[in-house]
Design a protein that fits this description.
two-stranded antiparallel ribbon, binds NADP nicotinamide-adenine-dinucleotide phosphate, 5 helices, alpha/beta, about 180 residues, Dihydrofolate Reductase, subunit A
Length: about 180
């Protein structure tokens, strides 16, 4: 079982603008059947985790809840749950949640959807194995950070998918 952080980023390491906009990302050309694309990735995922801002973005923008996997949402607040969604709220230590996700996922892998600070909390606990990043051809200058930690990584795969430079990294530990 592998825990992945799979995300798109600006070239300068931001996954959203300060206003939580992804317009810079959604306008890019991407082949969903191409290398390191989302449809093949999500097939191997049995449970996912995300922070409150990411969850609120999904609720506001996606056309209905698209995840069939159980999702753990980290928040200190009470947030709505879409009809039919398997959403479980959590707060604090990620280790208990990781254990519950592992049990729920069976033979499948885990996905930390974001944001970067939450992925960092999994890395702090030694529970983040792989980072997949699709770098869009933009710089944002500021915004929500990709991964605000100092980590040593090993590059295990690289590809171009139309506008995106895609890298897959193994997490070796703290730098
Ligand atoms: N580019 C991409 O592919 C991509 C991927 C994922 C996300 N995004 C975007 O990136 C942005 C990420 O936002 P963000 O940096 O604010 O990160 P986030 O992880 O989505 O949300 C942060 C919030 O999660 C809650 N949280 C995190 N850890 C917690 C813990 N251990 N216990 C309890 N609550 C915890 C807190 O919410 P409260 O205290 O307010 O409850 C915190 O303010 C969003 O706009 C999202 O849509 C982009």
């Amino acid at each position: 079982m592998t825990t992945h952080y799979f995300t798109a980023s600006s070239l300068d390491g931001f996954i959203a603008t300060p206003e939580h906009s992804l317009d810079w990302l959604l306008k890019q050309d991407f082949d969903t059947r191409g290398p390191m694309a989302y449809p093949a990735f999500i097939e191997q995922i049995g449970a996912l985790a995300m922070g409150a801002s990411t969850y609120e973005w999904v609720l506001a923008h996606d056309e209905g809840w698209s995840y069939r996997q159980p999702a753990w949402v980290f928040s200190h607040r009470e947030l709505p749950v879409p009809d039919g969604a398997d959403v479980r709220f959590a707060r604090g230590d990620v280790r208990e949640v990781h254990a519950a996700m592992t049990e729920a996922a069976g033979d499948l892998d885990l996905w930390v959807v974001g944001g970067g600070e939450l992925a960092g909390q999994f890395a702090d606990a030694g529970l983040l194995d792989e980072i997949w990043v699709q770098f869009a051809p933009v710089t944002l200058g500021q915004g929500a950070p990709l991964l605000p930690r100092a980590l040593d990584l090993e590059l295990v795969d690289v590809a171009r998918n139309r506008a995106f430079l895609c890298g897959r990294y193994r997490v070796l530990g703290a730098l």
